[in-house]
Amino acid sequence: MSLTDPDRLFPVEPSLRDRARALYDSVKDLPIVSPHGHCDPRWFAENERFPNPAELFVVPDHYVFRMLVSQGVKLTDLGVPREDGGETETDPRAIWRRFAENMKLFRATPSEMWLNHSFEHVFGLTEPLSAATAEMYYDHIDAKLAEPAFRPRALFESFGIEVLATTEGALDDLRWHRQMRDSGWTGRVVTTYRPDAVVDPEFEGFAENVARLGEITGEDTATWAGYLDAHRARRAFFKDHGATASDHGHASARTANLSQAEAAALFDKARAGTCSAEEADLFRGQMLTEMARMSLDDGLTLQIHAGSRRNHSAQVFAAHGRDKGFDIPGRTDYVAALKPMLDAVGMEPGLTIILFTLDETVYGRELAPLAGAYPSLKLGPPWWFFDSYEGIKRFREATTETCGFYNTAGFNDDTRAFCSIPARHDVARRSDCAYLATLVGTGRLREAEAFEVARDLSYQLAKDAYGL
Amino acid sequence: MSLTDPDRLFPVEPSLRDRARALYDSVKDLPIVSPHGHCDPRWFAENERFPNPAELFVVPDHYVFRMLVSQGVKLTDLGVPREDGGETETDPRAIWRRFAENMKLFRATPSEMWLNHSFEHVFGLTEPLSAATAEMYYDHIDAKLAEPAFRPRALFESFGIEVLATTEGALDDLRWHRQMRDSGWTGRVVTTYRPDAVVDPEFEGFAENVARLGEITGEDTATWAGYLDAHRARRAFFKDHGATASDHGHASARTANLSQAEAAALFDKARAGTCSAEEADLFRGQMLTEMARMSLDDGLTLQIHAGSRRNHSAQVFAAHGRDKGFDIPGRTDYVAALKPMLDAVGMEPGLTIILFTLDETVYGRELAPLAGAYPSLKLGPPWWFFDSYEGIKRFREATTETCGFYNTAGFNDDTRAFCSIPARHDVARRSDCAYLATLVGTGRLREAEAFEVARDLSYQLAKDAYGL
Amino acid sequence: MSLTDPDRLFPVEPSLRDRARALYDSVKDLPIVSPHGHCDPRWFAENERFPNPAELFVVPDHYVFRMLVSQGVKLTDLGVPREDGGETETDPRAIWRRFAENMKLFRATPSEMWLNHSFEHVFGLTEPLSAATAEMYYDHIDAKLAEPAFRPRALFESFGIEVLATTEGALDDLRWHRQMRDSGWTGRVVTTYRPDAVVDPEFEGFAENVARLGEITGEDTATWAGYLDAHRARRAFFKDHGATASDHGHASARTANLSQAEAAALFDKARAGTCSAEEADLFRGQMLTEMARMSLDDGLTLQIHAGSRRNHSAQVFAAHGRDKGFDIPGRTDYVAALKPMLDAVGMEPGLTIILFTLDETVYGRELAPLAGAYPSLKLGPPWWFFDSYEGIKRFREATTETCGFYNTAGFNDDTRAFCSIPARHDVARRSDCAYLATLVGTGRLREAEAFEVARDLSYQLAKDAYGL
Question: Which of B347, B444, B453 sits opposite A8 (nearest CB)?
Answer without folding.
Answer: B444
